[in-house]
Sequence to fold (265 residues):
Amino acid sequence: MTQTKLIATDIDGTLFDDDKNYNIERLNNYLKALHQQGIQFAVASGNNYDHLKRIFQRTPQIDLFIAENGAQIVKKGETIYEREMPKTLVNDMIPTLFNQLDLKSLSLSGKKASYAESKKDLPLYHMKNLVIVDNLLKINDDIFKFNIQLQHDDLTEAIKFLNDNYGQEIYAAVSGFGSIDIMRNNVNKSIALRHLCDLEDFSLKNVMAFGDNLNDLEMIQSVGTGIAMKNAKAQVIKVANLVTNTDNNHDGVLNTINEIFKLDK
Fold:
């Protein structure tokens, strides 16, 4: 196995169990041991940085946050990479999505806050920085991402609509909890990791990544060691180098890290 210099992990369905908990003490111990081996640790998530900073307050040794499915990278509290959506594209998409899709909810994730016209049906756990506005077209912020939920579970037609109408301008990914994240084109976790590797002066071959859902697919495919969770989608398992022996409810990420790097001594 190529020398690992960075471990990146998704959270929901991966590092976190189904109740959104993780083994804080064990992760802190492993972070210290990994740092002694010269290995950095990154969280790679579709969530906004404000949310990630809050839920990981008790694990301050995490080196990097790849937020918004790769639209923003933060290291030690400093943004080192970001890719916002063009304002004209955001303003074009808002009425189109409302008019053409059977939406349950629509929210925007920006640099300053998250925005919606109503709290109804929103995943509020992920949006403590939510600002309710009368009109999304009047927001004065840089927008990283749309998140939409539909009135039904079949996301296929919505993805097709987005690709047919905005395929050259956006990247749409099925995210957790039956929603779709919509970012600017050339934004995903894999591309963010590539930028990070350039900044840190190592290769994607030196990266190990864990994931479970379709927004992790490119990341799992592109890194040196792509590891799918036991509970991952079939498409993710298919492209992974390894599959964890235990699922997200039984410390699958931490168990696998320990198996590979022999951290429990």
Q: What stands out?
A: The domain at 87-184 is CATH 3.30.1240.10 (Hypothetical Protein, Haloacid Dehalogenase-like Hydrolase; Chain: A; domain 2).
